[in-house]
Every structure is written in C-alpha cells, then in structure tokens.
Design brief:
Flavocytochrome C3, Chain A, domain 1, flavoprotein, 16 helices, 3 domains, EC 1.4.3.16, 575 residues, single chain, Fum_R/Succ_DH_flav-like_C_sf
Length: 575
C-alpha cells in the first residue's frame, strides 16, 4: 500500500516537539504577516514550558538592576556566557513579561498589590515572577488561547518532524520546510515554507531519568545537525538537583513515570534545607551559599553524598515553614506528594538529580538566526550563549520569550525577499512508512528499538553524567558507536530502507545523534567549567574560556542518525 502524501504550503512553519513559550510567542507575531503552521509531536500542552514550575526571571523591582541580573547570569554560567546575549535578554526581559500580562497571563501578587517576586539559587535579588508552582502552565494557557483564536495559525497535532528540507546554493545551505509524519494516520506530510523556526525543546531522554516530557528526544537539534547547522556547547547538560525520588515515597507510584516529577528550585529559595538520610545538613560543606548555590554545585554535592554513602536519594525539608505558606507557594508539589502518602508540611521530600536542561544546541545569533538560510531557532533547542556553562534558574523561559520575539522581524524580512517554488517540492525523495515490512517484522524492530533506547540511556548516565573523565567518555563513545551500529544492522537486515520512517525509529535516530554530540563536545573540553566536571581536568582554565563548536559534516558519511533521509539537491537561487 503506497504511503499517503500531502503537500502544505505556508509562509512560515514553527516546528515543536512541544509547542512551548518560544514557538507560541513567535507564531502569534509572524501570523500578522502570513499563514503559519505549528507542527507539534504530541498535544500542544505537552511541553517543557508546561512543566516549568519555578517561574521566569526579570528585573521588575526598583532595588534590582539589569546589571545585577547580568552579573548573576554570567557568574552562574562560569563566565562562558555571550555578554551581548546576556545584555539583550536581561534588558528586554521586563517588557516581555509585561506583554504576557497584557495577553492575560495571571501571576501571583503580594499583599501590596504588586507582583510577588521570588528568589532562587544564584540570584542576588527577588526577581522571579510566578504563578504558584505552575508558572509554565499559566504562560502556556494564555498563549495557547491566543493561538487557537488566530485564523492565520494552523496547529498540526501528532505530527512528528522527520527532517528539514534543504538545498545547497553554492556554499550556502537553504531551508525550505520539513517532512512530517502524522503519527495517527501514518501519512507523510511535506510542508514547504519560506521560513522555519525550530522551537523543539531539549533532549532530556538521552538519560534514563529526566524532568522533560516524553517528547523531548532532541529532534530539533538532530534535524538541524543533519541539515548542516552549527551546534555549540552540547557538553553542558544541566541536571536539576531535586527531582522527586519515587523510591523514597511512602506509597510508591503504580508504574514507572515517563518523566521525573520536578521539585522546583523555589523550594530551596524559600528556605528548604537538604539533608542526607542521617538527617545531616551537607550543603554548607560544599559551598558557602549552601542550598542557594547554583544548580551545578548542588547537583554535584548531592551526587557526591549519594556515592559516598551508597544511598539512592537525599531529603529536602521545607516543613519548618508555616503550613499556609507552603501550601500557597507549592500546591502542585504538595498535592503530588500527598497522593503518595507524604505531607510536605510535616515531612521532608525525597529528591535525586535528573537531566533537566540542555544549555547547548543549535548555534543562534542575536535574532535567532542560524547558518542555514531561512532557519531560525528559539528556546531550549537553541544555543544563544545566554547560559554559558550553566543556566541560571528561571532564565530559560525568559530567553525563550526574548529570542522568539527577536526572530520575528528578520523572519518577516526574509519572507518578503524570498519566493516559494512549488515545483521544488518534488526535488526531495519522499519518506516511506514501512508497511511493506509487515506487522511481525515491525513488532520486532519496535521491541529492539525500545531495548536499545534503554541501553543508550544507561550508557549516558553511567559514563556521561554529572561527573565525567576522559577515559569514561571515550568508553561511552565506543559503546554508543557499537550499539548504534548493532541497531542499524538489525533494521536494515530486516528490510528497513534509508528513507523509511516510524516514530520510535526516528526518535531513536535523534537520540543517538544528540548523545554523540554531547560526548564529542565533552571530550573536546579539557577543563571543568559549570555543568561539565572532569575528574582528570578538575580546574577551570582561562585559556579554554571559549564555546565548543561542532561544524557541519559531510552529507555522505556517517550513520543513519547522522544523515538526512533525502539527498540534498543543488539548486541555484531557489529563494
């Protein structure tokens, strides 16, 4: 049975594994100038934004300053931040918050009627705007409401982005849209567009334990890498120090979670104290800022305690604070814990680090532009240089808002200066849905793929986790290479073809791609800086205060995960 095929022509495409704040905010602006397709892998609400509890940071208090926010960001980023990017975000951030409020986002206010500003680890002032402990959900609610009511925006749910459609114009790579798989109908849909924005989130699922939703499999980063986009700073993976440790709950969850439940940074910001299982407070032993130290310091400290004491989790205690304050600030956390027999107003919360945020990604300029013409990035998929070697708490939603807005005008200018060539749609080979293989073969392939996914995650946690070494990174590189070769051999021996697509196989392809980018970036940095800690290079080296950059590789070499499904056409001036 032939694969169903559809061609969609849009002015602009916004690709999301999960349409969070970056993609939605961008779509609302560019939709004023033409038709926009939002392509999302799952339901529109299933995003990292939706899971963001703590809030969004911005200078909104008279005693605070842009300079102070900049300094906190640069210190947390271990002085690897791009200072121009930091300045742009910290300066423009307050206006982006005001825009959200004008759109209907509702944030917590204090008794004086002003916005209630929280303080989190690494911040010198109270500057975190929040909606209890569900800030991301509230921002996304306001933005989704506006998107649904915009006649120029079409949302394509359950559409998995397979690969970017690119051509070569001399030495320039040009993006013309994407191929997507409708995972409900198994129909391949080709989207042709003047401009494409990737706002696809991170790659938390290269690790076994992550706070990211199940859709965060690094699809945007992998697609961009295959399309010859420059990648930067992938070694800097932020592990959130405090994800809920299910093993320590009085009533265990009935089934394993798809993603770890996040215990927001704000719990420590509000006075939460970390103890080991002997109820010994340990953070002051590692850092003078104790529980308010940046995330990398706290995560490494917890990791050290767990290894030294051979324990599975530590305890975060906020029960010494007034009950009413705890329940008003953290209702979502309190409710989740109570469902498992734990009252956080009386008992400490069992916590453990989990993969949380990719500080690296597709290298972007100050307007979200990439080295691929017509391709823009915003949010976690991008590496703008804001975060440097470690993200300051609550700076991610702010970065997404600022860069989504900054990408709008250059996108409009590019749209106006380019034209759509509909005949070009046939230049790329069409992806195939593997129905010809039969259900038995596909069942075997999916079973093997599931096992391989778990094995890759295990390798990444064991060898490329919070604490690393050159020898263990090299071992990871070898193990991942062998595992990938074994998986691809199995696929192709069972009739798989280069252009075949299935959700699980394509996700696996992207996970392999991102895992290899993290490992190769980590091997390239011979120092310990921010989130990247090496036991054989334990010190920070001033001479190495430079971003890690992975330039485009050859189209014809490498594994299936490293190549685009189609041959890239060489076309003069398609735009």
């Amino acid at each position: 049975m032939p694969t169903k095929r559809t061609l969609m022509v849009m002015w602009c495409i916004q690709v999301s594994a999960d349409p969070g704040v970056a993609g939605l905010r961008y779509a609302l602006e560019v939709a004023k100038h033409g038709s926009v397709a939002i392509i999302t892998k799952a339901e529109p609400h299933e995003s990292n934004t939706n899971y963001a509890q703590g809030g969004v940071s911005a200078v909104l208090c008279p005693s605070d300053s842009v300079e102070s926010h900049m300094q906190d960001t640069i210190v947390a980023g271990a002085y690897l931040c791009d200072e121009e990017s930091v300045k742009v975000v910290c300066t423009e951030g307050p206006d982006r918050i005001r825009e959200l409020i004008a759109m209907g986002a509702s944030f917590d206010h204090g008794d004086d009627g002003n916005l209630h500003l929280a303080r989190e680890g690494g911040h010198s002032h109270h500057r975190i705007v929040h909606a209890a402990d569900m800030t991301g959900r509230e921002i996304e609610r306001a933005l989704l409401e506006a998107v649904v009511n915009d006649p120029n925006i079409s949302v394509f749910k359950h559409h998995f982005a397979i690969d970017l459609l690119t051509s070569q114009d001399g030495s320039d790579t040009v993006c013309h849209g994407i191929d997507a798989l409708n995972t409900e109908t198994q129909e391949v849909v080709r989207f042709i567009s003047k401009v494409t924005l990737l706002a696809s989130g991170g790659a938390g699922h290269i690790y076994p334990s992550t706070t990211n939703p199940l859709v965060a499999t690094g699809d945007g980063m992998a697609m961009a890498h295959r399309a010859q986009a420059v990648i930067s700073n992938m070694e800097f993976v932020q592990f959130h120090p405090t994800a809920l440790a299910d093993e320590g709950l009085p009533i265990k969850p009935k089934k394993t979670r798809e993603n770890s439940f996040l215990i927001t940074e704000a719990v420590r910001g509000d006075g939460g104290i970390l103890y080991n299982l002997s109820m010994e407070r340990f953070m002051p032993l590692y850092d003078g800022r104790a529980e308010l130290a940046p995330r990398d310091v706290v995560a490494r400290s917890i990791d050290d305690q767990l290894k030294k004491r051979n324990e599975k989790y530590v305890l975060l205690d906020i029960s010494h604070k007034p009950r009413e304050k705890i329940l008003s600030h953290f209702p979502n956390i309190a409710n989740e814990c109570l469902q498992h027999g734990l009252d956080i107003t009386q008992q400490p919360i069992p916590v453990v680090p989990a993969a949380h945020y990719m500080c690296g990604g597709v290298r972007a300029g100050l307007q979200g532009e990439t080295n691929v013409h017509g391709l823009y990035v915003a949010g976690e998929v991008a590496c703008t240089g804001l975060h440097g070697a470690n993200r300051l708490a609550s700076n991610s939603l702010l970065e997404a808002l600022v860069f989504a807005r900054r990408a709008v005008q250059p996108s409009i200018n590019y749209m106006k200066s380019s034209s759509l060539d509909l005949s070009a749609s046939s230049l790329w080979t069409r992806p195939l849905v593997p129905k010809s293989l039969g259900s038995d073969v596909m069942h075997k392939i999916l079973r093997i793929t599931k096992e391989v996914r778990k094995e890759l995650q295990s390798i990444m946690w064991k060898y490329v986790g919070i604490v690393r070494s050159t020898s263990r990174l090299q071992e990871a590189e070898q193990k991942i290479g062998k595992l990938e070769a074994k998986w691809e051999t199995y696929l192709f021996e069972h009739g798989w073809q280069q252009t075949m697509v299935a959700l699980e196989a394509c996700e696996m392809r992207n996970l392999f791609c991102c895992a290899k980018l993290v490992v190769s970036s980590a091997l390239a940095r011979h120092e310990s800086r921010g989130l990247h800690y090496m036991t054989d290079f334990p010190h920070l080296e001033e001479s190495k205060r430079l971003p890690t950059v992975i330039f485009p590789s050859s189209h014809t070499t490498g594994t299936w995960s490293s190549r685009q499904l189609h041959q890239q056409p060489i076309v003069k001036s398609m735009v």
